[in-house]
Write a structure and sequence with these properties.
Elements lengths: L3 E5 L3 H12 L3 E5 L3 H8 L10 H10 L3 E4 L2 H6 L3 E4 L14 H13 L4 E5 L7 H12 L6 E5 L9 H6 L4 E4 L6 H8 L6 E4 L1 H32 L3 H9 L20 H14 L5 H25 L6 E5 L14 H11 L3 E5 L4 H7 L6 E3 L12 E4 L11 H7 L4 E4 L6 H6 L3 E3 L4
Parallel strand pairs: 1-2, 1-4, 2-3, 4-5, 5-6, 7-8, 9-10, 9-12, 10-11, 12-13, 13-14
Helix pairs in contact: 1-3, 5-6, 9-11, 9-12, 11-12
Bound molecules: uridine-5'-diphosphate-glucuronic acid (UGA).
């Protein structure tokens, strides 16, 4: 059966969630307080690059299941279930800023005229649901019944539509039985196991999952250091341990470390809430420490080969924080570029999707030249660097690159090429843990 749903916030999570809900037949109203963004979405444009999303937005808008508005009141009036998907940005002390959640909770409360299920989808520290419920109770002028539910998201940018349409699991945290049937109906079309928990556990599942994935990456990065020191190969080690089903091969790719708007923020937030609750989560501090060390080690590798970086010309492939996205927030690739420019290097940079967004934080000029063609990246350069794991970088014209470079040197921060093959082609090739 089709559910009537409102989604407050049309960022990555809100827009993908709302669109996929509409795609399976639900009636969805997406609300955003940014009127320009709402206009753009109403006109069929989307503000982010996410594979497959634009077509789905157009299709579901045209078929009348998906609409956009700047009015929370309208969204609340037209739906039975209201998802909150607003940002929870980091603060200086590592904890998260919950003011957007609090504000939306008040807006929803003052708009309600009948029973509503209010679902928190934003990533929040444990115990937030209790505060949301308290806030809604306080500002609920019509004094109607409501339930607060926690339903964390597990979407990866660049793969968000697939992750939502075919989830590994759906987590629904609720303290009351009343919203259970409605939440089942929302997720029934997705054919995934639904786990019902209490609200606090659902909130914790999100932080614990992201922190564990980050830990997995830092673990393999730490092992890569031992591989380099001992002459082992991190790819073979990752394959060898990853085939153990208890471990699994995914998220065991060594490299420049993790970035993006989720892992770094969620780790800090989990450490902060743990501390507030009386536990010092030193394990996760070490995860952060190893992650920061990967960048230091990569730069050291470059300096060991090229010596002084001042006036060196370097071609950098990749600016996004990972493949398949134009998102450059907390991107290791951007961090790398900024550090190299600070050392006086001159960069030619290329990314398949993220160049526009990168220009805002890494302006053209000032040691940075944006190039339109991946295969021209090495022209006039002393070395090529790979900073993001875009699959198309494996198609780089290596013959041309070898001729373009003053000396054929390639630093691969994402292990995209085979060391033996690169050596055969005459490259000095340095990657991670091999
Ligand atoms: C992550 C989680 O994977 C999602 O499940 C979660 O829903 C999301 O955060 C969120 O909280 O919203 P995302 O940040 O989009 O998703 O991207 P990931 O694919 O997890 O990659 C994160 C970072 O880890 C990237 O910088 C990537 O390059 C790096 N990474 C990933 C590695 O260095 N090695 C790997 O093996 C995998």
């Amino acid at each position: 059966m089709a559910s009537k749903i409102a989604i407050i916030g049309t960022g990555y999570v809100g827009l993908v969630t709302g669109t996929c809900f509409a795609e399976v037949g639900h009636q969805v109203t997406c609300v955003d307080n940014n009127a320009d963004k709402v206009k753009m979405l109403q006109d069929g444009g989307i503000p982010i690059y996410e594979p497959g999303l634009e077509d789905l937005v157009k299709k579901n808008t045209a078929e009348g299941r998906l609409r956009f508005t700047a009015s929370t009141k309208e969204g609340v009036d037209e739906s039975d279930i209201i998802f909150i998907a607003v940002p929870t940005p980091p603060q200086d002390d590592g904890s998260v800023d919950l003011s957007f959640i609090e504000k939306v909770a008040r807006e929803i409360a003052s708009s309600m005229t009948s029973y509503k299920i209010i679902v928190d989808k934003s990533t929040v520290p444990v115990n937030t649901g209790e505060n949301v419920a308290e806030t809604i109770k306080r500002y609920n002028q019509a004094n109607v019944d409501f339930d607060v539910v926690s339903n964390p998201e597990f979407l990866r940018e660049g793969f968000a539509v697939g992750d939502l349409m075919e989830p590994d699991r759906v987590v629904v945290g609720t303290t009351s039985q009343r919203p259970v049937a409605a939440m089942r109906e929302v997720y029934e079309p997705f054919k995934a196991p639904i786990i019902f928990t209490d609200i606090n556990s659902a909130e914790l599942i999100k932080h614990a999952a992201n922190s564990f994935l980050a830990l997995k990456i830092s673990y393999i990065n730490a092992v890569s250091i031992i591989c380099e020191a001992s002459g082992a190969n991190i790819e073979e080690v990752a394959n060898g341990i990853g085939l153990d089903e208890r471990i699994g091969r995914r998220f065991l790719n060594a490299g420049l470390g993790f970035g993006g708007s989720c892992f770094p923020k969620d780790l800090s937030a989990f450490i902060a809430i743990a501390e507030q609750l009386g536990y010092k989560f030193d394990l996760l501090k070490e995860v952060q420490h190893i992650n920061a060390g990967q960048m230091e080690r990569f730069i050291k590798k470059i300096e060991e080969t090229l010596w002084v970086l001042k006036e060196k010309k370097l071609g950098v492939l990749g600016l996004a924080f990972k493949q398949n996205t134009d998102d450059v927030r907390m991107s290791p690739a951007i961090d790398l570029c900024q550090r190299l420019v600070k050392e006086g290097a001159e960069l030619r940079v290329y990314d398949p999707k993220a160049m526009e967004k990168a220009k805002e934080i890494l302006p053209e000029g000032e040691g940075i030249t944006y190039v339109d063609d991946m295969n021209s990246i090495g022209e006039g350069c002393d070395a090529i660097l790979i900073a993001t794991e875009w699959p198309e970088f494996t198609e780089l014209d290596l013959e041309k690159a070898r001729k373009d470079l003053s000396h054929p040197i390639l630093f691969d921060g994402r292990n995209l090429f085979e060391p033996a093959k690169m050596e055969e082609l005459g490259f000095i090739y340095k990657s991670i843990g091999r």
